[in-house]
Design a protein that fits this description.
Layout (H helix, E strand, L loop, with lengths): L6 E5 L14 H23 L3 H4 L1 E10 L10 E10 L4 E9 L4 E14 L4 E2 L4 H8 L5
Antiparallel strand pairs: 1-3, 2-5, 3-4, 4-5, 5-6
């Protein structure tokens, strides 16, 4: 598996994220994924000069596959994310929430994002600069 284009985000667990069994509540994972994605896109936008990638995006679809329960602990959990597809007016981010040692996969997920022009209140296409920036992050 080619992991070199994966962005890594270390996500802290909060006590309030837990259910009565001491597992992360399923609804909290979407927040974790968003935190990782914002970190990823902010950094990418800054490094690659594609500033609209930071803010001008709407979530069109989320898919979340719960693989194993994540118990509360003081250490953060690792989130790896990468771009899996770039179309004319959308792109897809894939994620895995995991522990590296020993390898345990808790969640695999995917989000389709569409660029939005908030000033004009309409969807827009991905610009050449954005496409170039995103294409550097295509992984598997």
């Amino acid at each position: 598996m080619d992991h070199h284009n994966r962005h890594v985000y270390h996500c802290p667990l909060r006590w309030g994220d837990m259910d009565a069994l001491g597992h992360v509540n399923n609804g909290r994972y979407v927040d974790y994924l968003q935190d990782a994605r914002v970190d990823f896109l902010f950094r990418t936008a800054k490094e690659l000069g594609a500033d609209d990638l930071e803010t001008g995006l709407l979530v069109a679809r989320h898919e979340v596959h719960y693989r194993a329960p994540l118990r509360f602990r003081p250490e953060p959990v690792r989130i790896e994310l990468w771009i899996s597809e770039i179309k004319a007016a959308s792109f897809t981010v894939d994620y895995e929430i995991l522990d590296a040692e020993p390898y345990t996969s808790y969640v695999q997920a995917r989000t389709r994002l569409v660029p939005f022009d908030f000033a004009a209140n309409r969807l827009r296409r991905i610009t050449p600069v954005e496409r170039e920036a995103l294409s550097k992050l295509v992984g598997s």
